[in-house]
């Protein structure tokens, strides 16, 4: 820790798309989760598709729209178009918010807000008593929070200046330089390993897993505590063989003895329509409890502590 500057630049700006309070599933104690925009992956089951780009996005609630056309009139770029699938052409939208101001039926909303570290800390500070009493703190999530590594670093330094515990939920997809800079500021790293096979990984997430698996080793050598998390997705990795392979890989990491299995859910599926996107996993069912217990037993066979859920 001797190489860390004691001060932090609280004027640094980052794009934040959600702040979730009173979470008990994302690290020790009661935590506030700051969700940061930007992600190099495109997982088909992503429950935060509005976070993937590093820019604010307008979301359209078709059920509220009365077709008045106000939004089209004020849009300076032609992005707001009632004939366009999903209503907003995101390739043209500059997120000026003019359409939202004139939509009196609340059919449009902006996701993603540029905030300084100071502004975000002001929000996080509201729950400081709960962090202290519960042994909780701040969890950063995404997207992939390390995409905005300069902002993230200053945020983590600010949290540490208050003595709060810090955790991250990460895809593990970042350069080794960024990982070496960020991980020492975290008390807990919760990293996804989604599949061992590079081709299947690429088909469902848009990227090869080679860098992620390498980074898992690097992160495990730097982290104070690391937990591997596996989203269990039917048709992708929900099989005893795949989970056994991920559990085996986990045993090769430095000082990692915990793996969490996160059963698939479709809670974010409605957001795809709001972004004019297709939800490719429509109709996929949540894995049965009995099956999850079977997978848990496979993980435990490798000598790992296994939990189903967060
Ligand atoms: S945010 Fe601005 S650019 Fe984007 S659709 Fe609305 S009015 Fe058009
Ligand atoms: S202003 Fe709102 S209600 Fe009117 S057409 Fe646009 S999205 Fe629909």
From TrEMBL:
Pfam families the UniProt entry points to: Fer4, Radical_SAM
Every copy of the 4Fe-4S ferredoxin-type domain together lies at 56-83, 84-113
Enzyme class, UniProt record, top EC level: oxidoreductase
- Reactions catalysed: glycyl-[protein] + reduced [flavodoxin] + S-adenosyl-L-methionine = glycin-2-yl radical-[protein] + semiquinone [flavodoxin] + 5'-deoxyadenosine + L-methionine + H(+)
Q: Which UniProt keywords apply?
A: 4Fe-4S, Iron, Iron-sulfur, Metal-binding, Oxidoreductase, S-adenosyl-L-methionine, Transferase
Keyword Translocase set for record:
no
Would I find Lipid metabolism among this entry's keywords? no
Q: Name one GO molecular function term.
A: metal ion binding
E.C. number(s) listed in UniProt: 1.-.-.-, 1.97.1.4
Q: Which PANTHER family does its entry note?
A: PYRUVATE FORMATE-LYASE 2-ACTIVATING ENZYME, PYRUVATE FORMATE-LYASE-ACTIVATING ENZYME
What family does the database annotate?
Belongs to the organic radical-activating enzymes family.
Q: Under which name does UniProt file this protein? A: [formate-C-acetyltransferase]-activating enzyme
Gene source species: Anaerobutyricum hallii
Lineage summary: Bacteria, Bacillati, Bacillota, Clostridia, Lachnospirales
């Amino acid at each position: 820790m001797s190489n860390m500057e004691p001060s932090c630049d609280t004027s640094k700006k980052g794009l934040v798309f959600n702040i979730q309070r009173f979470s008990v599933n994302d690290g020790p104690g009661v935590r506030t989760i700051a969700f940061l925009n930007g992600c190099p992956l495109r997982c088909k089951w992503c429950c935060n598709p509005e976070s993937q780009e590093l820019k604010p996005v307008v979301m359209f609630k078709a059920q509220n729209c009365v077709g008045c056309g106000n939004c089209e009139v004020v849009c300076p770029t032609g992005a707001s178009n009632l004939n366009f699938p999903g209503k907003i052409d995101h390739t043209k939208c500059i997120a000026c918010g003019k359409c939202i101001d004139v939509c009196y039926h609340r059919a449009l909303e902006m996701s993603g807000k540029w905030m300084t570290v100071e502004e975000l800390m002001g929000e996080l500070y509201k729950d400081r008593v709960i962090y202290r009493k519960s042994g909780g703190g701040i969890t950063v999530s995404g997207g992939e929070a390390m995409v905005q590594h300069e902002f993230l670093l200053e945020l983590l330094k600010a949290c540490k200046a208050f003595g709060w515990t810090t955790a991250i939920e990460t895809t593990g997809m970042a350069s080794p330089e960024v990982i070496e800079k960020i991980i020492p500021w975290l008390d807990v790293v919760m990293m996804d390993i989604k599949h061992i096979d590079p081709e299947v990984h690429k088909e469902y997430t848009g990227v090869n897993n080679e860098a992620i698996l390498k980074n898992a080793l690097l992160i495990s050598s730097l982290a104070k505590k690391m937990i591997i998390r596996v989203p269990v997705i039917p048709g992708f990795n929900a099989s005893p063989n795949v989970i056994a392979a991920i559990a085996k890989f986990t045993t090769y990491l430095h000082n990692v003895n915990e793996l969490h299995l996160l059963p698939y859910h479709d809670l974010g599926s409605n957001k795809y329509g709001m972004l004019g996107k297709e939800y490719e996993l429509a109709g996929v069912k949540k894995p049965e409890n009995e099956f999850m217990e079977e997978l848990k037993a496979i993980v435990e066979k490798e000598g790992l502590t296994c939990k189903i859920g967060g």
